[in-house]
């Protein structure tokens, strides 16, 4: 990247590792130094919470606002009814309006932790594309918007081509998705003078479509910017843990488990993740990322604390760190561990240790739990478990017990 930006936002994007591509570096840079600009990222409302895979682009919106510009979080209340085919091997299940609204409410809680939604010049806006998509007249839309799209060109996009190359069905419903997303950019430009759409690099084709459509219909100059698709140093997709998605809503994943996810970052990723997911100065991120041995573990604790503080607050981060130190360094129980509370009726005459390991989420199935025990990877109160047939009754739960899978995953079981 040889372009030397004048705007704080582009400079931040480049030096912290957020930038994959931009449709016009110079044009966007000039726009950003000329005054407050409005930019958006779109989010489909397909789940009750955002997850760690969304966090990079949430930080992009946060930096946009911190550098003096106006972010829009566009909720796909309309497009979620259609489903984004981008790089998916199958069609998304379609959701009803009540579920979509509930999902948007859950996601809103997370955005409010990172962005300031207020009436100021740079105050963030939360919009829903159902506002303009729900009332579209099909014939008018075909005539006014559809005529600007070439099917030949749409077929050439990687997201569509990958589905067709595998001879997997791509419904007409999904094929319309990219037209609707392009139309979002046009409407945001027309209604809110939004000049920039951002997103992951898999959204490049959709972003280009929106820019072309807006130029054709309104003759306005607008821009696109993408972030790299983030993988860990060992090639895994960012945001997945052994237990599934790493959710950002506290009701779906405890602040301790969230903290622990970051504490378990591999050494090679620490410096890069500090730059992307925290607001620490870049030279400090580089310094900590270059540490080795036991010192890199303290850098991981710093990473976990910084990221957890942004989402859950400083008190939650401090509690998580204290719990982790108690569990790992002192072999204690720790008051903030994920906890399974069983009623006397649920427990009955007793429950097998395998069932408990599955119920606490330390294993996904009985088979996996048995394998964990057979490979000496499971512990009960820090003592290796050897008997997969062990039964735990009310007497054994007169005080909470700690189950462990490997060195880093723990849960408490107690009677309620």
UniProtKB/TrEMBL annotation:
It is an enzyme of class 6 (ligase). A motif ('KMSKS' region) lies at residues 237-241. It catalyses: tRNA(Tyr) + L-tyrosine + ATP = L-tyrosyl-tRNA(Tyr) + AMP + diphosphate + H(+). It comes from the Bacteria. L-tyrosine binds at residues 40, 177, 181. InterPro entries: aa-tRNA-synth_Ic, Rossmann-like_a/b/a_fold, S4_RNA-bd_sf, Tyr-tRNA-ligase, Tyr-tRNA-ligase_bac-type, Tyr-tRNA-ligase_bac_1. This is Tyrosine--tRNA ligase. It comes from Ruegeria halocynthiae.
């Amino acid at each position: 990247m040889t372009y030397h930006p004048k705007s704080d936002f582009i400079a931040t994007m480049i030096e912290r590792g957020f930038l994959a591509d931009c449709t016009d570096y110079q044009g966007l840079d000039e726009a950003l130094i000329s005054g407050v600009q409005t930019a958006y990222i779109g989010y489909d409302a397909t789940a009750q919470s955002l997850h760690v895979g969304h966090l990079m682009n949430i930080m992009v919106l946060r930096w946009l606002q911190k550098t003096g510009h106006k972010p829009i979080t566009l909720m796909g209340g309309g497009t979620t009814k259609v489903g984004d085919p981008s790089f998916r091997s199958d069609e998304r299940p379609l959701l009803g309006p009540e579920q979509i609204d509930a999902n948007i409410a859950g996601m809103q809680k997370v955005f409010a932790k990172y962005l300031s939604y207020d009436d100021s010049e740079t105050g963030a806006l939360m919009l829903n594309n159902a506002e303009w998509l729900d009332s579209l007249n099909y014939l008018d839309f075909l005539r006014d918007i559809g005529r600007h799209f070439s099917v030949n060109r749409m077929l050439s996009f990687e997201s569509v081509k990958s589905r067709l190359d595998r001879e997997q069905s791509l419904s007409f419903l999904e094929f319309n998705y990219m037209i609707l997303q392009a139309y979002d950019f046009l409407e945001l430009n027309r209604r809110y003078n939004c000049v920039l759409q951002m997103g992951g690099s898999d959204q490049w084709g959709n972003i280009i479509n929106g820019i072309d459509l807006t130029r054709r219909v309104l003759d306005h100059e607008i821009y696109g910017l993408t972030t790299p698709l983030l993988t860990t140093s060992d090639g895994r997709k960012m945001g997945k843990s052994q237990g599934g998605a790493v959710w950002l809503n506290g009701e779906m994943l405890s602040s301790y488990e969230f903290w622990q996810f970051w504490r378990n970052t591999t050494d090679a990723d620490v410096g890069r993740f500090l730059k992307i997911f925290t607001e620490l100065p870049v030279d400090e991120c580089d310094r900590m990322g270059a540490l080795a041995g036991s010192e890199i573990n303290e850098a991981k604790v710093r990473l976990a604390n910084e990221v957890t503080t942004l989402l859950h607050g400083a008190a939650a981060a401090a509690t998580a760190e204290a719990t982790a130190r108690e569990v790992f360094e002192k072999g204690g129980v720790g008051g903030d561990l994920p906890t399974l509370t069983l009623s006397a009726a649920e427990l009955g005459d007793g429950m097998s240790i395998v069932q408990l390991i599955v119920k606490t989420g330390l294993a996904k199935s009985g088979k996996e739990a048995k394998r964990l025990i057979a490979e000496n990877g499971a512990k009960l109160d820090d003592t290796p478990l050897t008997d997969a047939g062990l039964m735990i009754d009310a007497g054994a739960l007169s005080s909470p017990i700690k189950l462990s899978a490997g060195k880093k995953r723990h849960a408490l079981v107690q009677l309620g």
